[in-house]
Write a structure and sequence with these properties.
Layout: H1 13-38, H2 47-60, H3 68-97, H4 101-114, H5 120-125, H6 133-158, H7 198-215, H8 224-242, E1 244-254, E2 257-267
Antiparallel strand pairs: 1-2
């Protein structure tokens, strides 16, 4: 009994070009659908369009392409498809495990301000999609329990031994000796920014954080103290170059990065 041969079919050059162009559009559309799902705009992943695209890729792999330009174009599309599948599968695993980086970035600042473990209601309020809130909160709870257990074991291993019973005083407590009071050192105050008030700086920094949050890159934001130190070094040079006494800060987004820019507000007479 003869074994059946591999499935192949013939297409003209125009047919191959039209098929590859259609697949490129479907691939771009499918990428947009997955990004919408990862951002929480869609409730379920686009599994049906993905199966359709996978079927088209398998069919085109059986088509002999004699034109070198079309063959290179299809190979580039195949490589792009493999990379996107790898990215989608990895992101889906992160969502199921509650380790999706966008969800983690949304909660870092919230947990730093409030402490403790985030609840499902707080996660929903921060914008985490409902279909992955439970997995995310469960992972946070497990992580918090591990940290608490590690802190408890560390404190018990380094704790002071208990005082023996014979050493406990039974009489009136001794009068504590008055030690000379040494004034506590004053905390280093934040340096004042040349040409910029603290109120203006804090307002611009809030806009800077809001821009990071809208882009979903909160983890890339520079902390306030580092931003203040950076401006304290740069502003004198800007004031001298712009020949001004005061500056204003504006938030700018360039190539997916958020920056604070200083502009002259008042010129020198």
């Amino acid at each position: 009994m003869k074994k059946a041969g591999a499935f192949t079919f013939q297409l003209t050059r125009e047919g191959i070009e039209a098929r590859v162009g259609e697949m490129e559009k479907k691939c771009d559309r499918l990428r947009s659908m997955y990004e919408a799902y990862f951002m929480g705009m869609e409730r379920i992943p686009p599994n049906t369009p993905r199966r359709e695209m996978n079927r088209l890729m398998l069919e085109m792999q059986q088509v002999p392409i004699s034109n070198s330009a079309l063959r290179f174009r299809f190979q580039a599309l195949s490589q792009k498809w493999v990379l996107q599948i790898t990215y989608w599968n990895r992101t889906m695993r992160e969502i199921e495990a509650g380790t999706f980086r966008r969800d983690m970035a949304r909660t870092q600042r919230h947990l730093a301000e409030r402490g403790g473990i985030i609840t499902e209601e707080e996660a929903l309020a921060l914008g985490i999609p409902k279909n992955r809130v439970k997995a995310f909160v469960l992972r946070q709870q497990r992580q918090g329990a591990r940290k608490l257990g590690a802190a408890t074991s560390a404190s018990s291993s380094t704790g002071l031994p208990a005082m023996p019973v014979a050493a406990v005083r039974t009489g009136p407590p001794p009068i504590p000796r008055q030690e000379p009071r040494v004034p506590a050192p004053e905390s280093a105050a934040a340096p004042s920014l040349p040409g910029l008030s603290d109120l203006d700086f804090e307002g611009a920094y809030r806009n800077y954080l809001d821009a990071h949050q809208k882009l979903g890159i909160e983890a890339q934001a520079v902390p306030m103290d580092k931003m203040r130190s950076r401006l304290h070094r740069q502003l004198p040079k800007i004031l001298d170059e712009q020949r001004c006494e005061r500056v204003r800060l504006e938030v700018a987004v360039e190539d997916g990065k958020v920056r604070l820019r200083a502009w002259a507000a008042e010129s020198k007479p």
